[in-house]
Amino acid sequence: MRVLLVEDDDRLAAALTKALARHGHEVVRASLAVDALRLAGGVDFVLLDLGLPDMDGLEALRRLRRVSAVPLIVVTARTEEREVLRGLRSGADDYLVKPFRTVELMARMEAVVRRGTRPRPQRDDVVNVGDVRIDLEARQVTVAGEAVTLTRREFDLLAMLAREPGVVRGREEILDEIWGDPLLSASRSLDVHVANLRSKTGRPGLVETLRGTGYRLGSTA
């Protein structure tokens, strides 16, 4: 297989490249997330470290999963259960904590390939809800042709719902992905951001609340 190794540690990358080559794999190495996103379309498998210098690996994983279903294993020194769950929820097929044995990595790669890959995401860069236009790539929102100014987190929240219209997102899931801390579910931060989205767009039904469950993209009513 052609394997993309995303790892900024030169010594570890060299060791993994040698081990993968011994097992018959061709290795393409990237030390930056921006390079990984550019190269991912031409490989059969991705090994992704989370501690990258230009972007958090989880954010790189989310961006990759918007356009690619390539098999991917997160390889990282982060051991917290919350980090593992965030990696899997963000689209990783498996999660391997450093240090690990080469034989375990190879076994997990084989298992991921045997399971097959998820369907390729079929998502538009632009989502329209009535007269609301959400441009996910340009990070712009317009209502009836007029631009609406949102904060970074307000847009991230709206984009998370817009990427899968109709899918209900739980409070903890949203707080985990947008704020990076599901424990914030005890605060009113998410509620304030939802209220701001409704107010700024002038479309109170754009973000629909499902009591005791979470939120989903609604209508412009």
From TrEMBL:
The keyword Phosphoprotein applies. Transmembrane segments: none annotated. This is Sensory transduction protein RegX3. It comes from the Bacteria. InterPro entries: CheY-like_superfamily, OmpR/PhoB-type_DNA-bd, Sig_transdc_resp-reg_receiver, WalR-like, WH-like_DNA-bd_sf. Residues 2-113 form the Response regulatory domain. Residues 124-219 form the OmpR/PhoB-type domain. Signal peptide: none annotated. The modification 4-aspartylphosphate is found at D49. Residues 124-219 bind DNA. Pfam families: Response_reg (PF00072), Trans_reg_C (PF00486). PROSITE patterns: OMPR_PHOB, RESPONSE_REGULATORY. GO terms for cellular component: cytosol; protein-DNA complex. One of its GO terms (molecular function) is phosphorelay response regulator activity. Keywords: DNA-binding, Phosphoprotein, Transcription, Transcription regulation. GO terms for biological process: regulation of DNA-templated transcription.
